[in-house]
Amino acid sequence: TFLLSRVAEEITMGVEPQAVAFVSFTRAAASEARARAASALPWVDPASLSLWSTIHSLCYRMLGLRRDQVFTGKRLVEFATKWGYRLSVNIDRDAQDLPDQALFSTEDYYEHFIGWWAHTMEPDFPTAFRSYLRQATDLPTDFGLPGLQQYIERREAFKQERGLVDFEDMLRLVLARGLTPEIDVLLADEV
Fold this sequence. Notes:
Helix content: 40-55%
Number of strands: 3
Strand order of the largest sheet: 2-1-3
Largest sheet: 3 strands, parallel
């Protein structure tokens, strides 16, 4: 409610609703915030809240990507099939968003590590790997540095061969290209 009162105050002071952005790391949080805003601010056209989304969705739109350019779902299955990897996570969700208890195969943990590393912003692979080992619980016995490195190398090569980007790539590309949405007010959901 505090954030919504800030949005209402900004709009009352003249900020256009489409110049207000709310970013979150989860679809559920972004969707809930949009619904609350539409309910609490009935004079605002819900269509003008297009910048109320996940950070990845915002980057996706700023980069002008198409769905078939994103390394998720079907593309992840193609990659796993090519190399004989067993991924048991729901292909419509990111492995890094799942609790450790939902990870079953070694490859699930590899995917989890990749997202975890991007979100923690550890400076380099060895540091990230050591940190992950300290915090992870119940890792598969075959989870190790050589297998993870090979998985990441194959994953990156697969994406590059097909011109695909994953969610972490989107964030890096937006920053590297200096892209910024036209906003006056930015609200960020807690992580």
